[in-house]
Amino acid sequence: MTQLPNFIQKNDDGMWLVEDEENMMKISYRIDEIVYQKQSPFQHVMVVQSPNFGRMLVLDGIVQTTSLDGHIYNEMITHVPLTIHPNPKRVLIIGGGDCGAAREVTKYKEVEEIDMVEIDALVVEACKLHLTDVSGNLSDPRVNFIFADGIEYIKAKKDYYDVVIIDSSDPIGPATQLFEKSFYNNVKEALKEDGLMVCQSQSPAFHMKVLHQTYRSIQELFPISKVYTAVVPTYPGGMWSFTLGSKKYSEVDLSKLAADTKYVSPALLSQCFALPAFLQKALAE
Amino acid sequence: MTQLPNFIQKNDDGMWLVEDEENMMKISYRIDEIVYQKQSPFQHVMVVQSPNFGRMLVLDGIVQTTSLDGHIYNEMITHVPLTIHPNPKRVLIIGGGDCGAAREVTKYKEVEEIDMVEIDALVVEACKLHLTDVSGNLSDPRVNFIFADGIEYIKAKKDYYDVVIIDSSDPIGPATQLFEKSFYNNVKEALKEDGLMVCQSQSPAFHMKVLHQTYRSIQELFPISKVYTAVVPTYPGGMWSFTLGSKKYSEVDLSKLAADTKYVSPALLSQCFALPAFLQKALAE
Predict the structure, then answer these.
(1) Got the DSSP string for B140-197?
(2) Residue B235: per-residue pLDDT
């Protein structure tokens, strides 16, 4: 029998996944079953079944996405850039191992090529098999899975993509470099002259420093830079931020929005760049 | 020495407040100190000091508000109705024992009378003494503290208030009746012919049934009914909902917004009624 990782606790009251937020706050989720767990060269990869969030993808003990609300994050990181760019043909996703971002991109008929560069093949395997609510059991022929390091991959591409989506995990371990300015500069060079990029930039409530630094880097590199937010119940702090860097386009075209979304609506798209006062102030500093 | 309540756990790693969400999810907050604790006739009232949320008000083991984000909820439940009503003179707050809503209302010079009806005097005492980041150590002479049952109080008032703010705790125990249609009908009668009310209507992620029922009741009673949301990091699910019932006015006047807010901005006010697709759909059912 496989040994349980230390973030799984069993007691008289059942089995719990305990997510530790820097030893200041702990969130314990009741779970019914561990559906999948393997150690990859990069991290511990696990899918669990929980009674109120459904299936959850857990990497190194941190909840990444769930059946209940995975679509919120994945819709926000894709439909915003794809309704801003008027004619996205080549789209690159860096990270995004849960396949949910790729699934959303396939809803746009004008997209011809979707390259997904994920460092950890086991994450994709786990989600395709056991997290189909999020991954959608992706079989669209436009999607190319490339199991490689996004940092290296992007260096070789110049003037190629219309849209780059950086769907990374938290800036600890392998993902740290995905938050550095030199990486965003390589993304800029991989984009066509009217291309644009979006990255997830963490929680404004708990990781303001990361958001601030990300926004500043992108602001220095791109003529257009904007932050937008969404509410993701299973992320600490609830509110999540995304940062857009664009060479030319800045406005959402509501008429372009794909029809079958669960969270994003035209009303929501038109207001997601309206930031709370504290956040506007913090970003201006 | 006072015995610790069972939602406080002490172990080798310090002292933790454990908030139990229906035995499905548990949120543990590291705390440095219990600053205040008393049993009132209604509930266990506690103020704790935590390293990352500052002071927290805890009623029967459930976090109600914190120094870090208490202003978000209190600004959203007050500045929305006070910028919709063109001339609010008499304002009633039902609940709101942390005094934060009353504090926000005092920012409006045209308001002449602020009646705050809170059932539990100990909550007000605890917050005035130990949670001044939220309560603001309120001393505005327009504020009248009335320690009484809001259910009974409202029955005696007819055609009197311009704005009624229902700042209740969760619909368990004494607050249950504050979510019933007969109560909202009494609120309607206590309002002038052009008056309006706002209530907190729980988390759309976790308490959709309560929100749906609240919205339906208010929709049946008032010619104008609308739901708006805010992001409150320490509330489960992050997103919180508020429901407006109005006899006449429906549009926010951005020019009226008080200057010294931390969360609410004109941009945020103008978009807070834009709801995610899932919520629009759920409310229409």
Answers:
(1) -TTEEEEES-HHHHHHT--S-EEEEEEE---SSGGGGGGGSHHHHHHHHHHEEEEEEE
(2) 65
* Superfamily for domain range B70-284: Vaccinia Virus protein VP39 (3.40.50.150)
Model confidence pLDDT, tens digit, residues B32-86: 999 999 999 999 999 999 998 899 999 999 899 999 888 889 999 999 999 999 9
- Decide if B280 and A267 are in contact by the 8 Å CB cutoff: yes
CA-based angle B75:B276:A115, to the nearest 5? 125
> What value of ipTM does the predicted structure carry?
0.73
The residue to which tokens 């010619």 are assigned = B223
Q: Contact B262/A274, CB-based, under 8 Å? A: no
Instruction: For residue B233, list chain A residues with Cβ-Cβ distance below 8 A.
Output: 203, 205-206, 236-239
CA-based nearest residue to B40, from B159, B160, B152, B169? B169
* Residue B18: Cβ-neighbour burial (10 angstroms; 0-12, 13-18, 19+): middle
Single out the residue of B63, B81, B100 nearest to residue B272, CA to CA: B81
- pTM here? 0.81
Residue A78 has pLDDT above 70, yes or no: yes
Q: What residue ranges in A211-272 does DSSP mark as E strands?
A: 224-231, 239-246
Residue A235 CA to residue A155 CA, distance in Å, equals: 31
Query: What are the structural domain ranges in chain B?
Result: 8-66, 70-284
8 Å CB contact of A263 and B277: yes
What are the tens digits of pLDDT across the range A5-56? 889 999 888 999 999 887 888 989 999 999 999 999 999 999 999 998 899 9
With beta carbons under 8 A apart, name residues in chain A contacting B206: 233
CATH number 2.30.140.10 given to A8-66:
yes
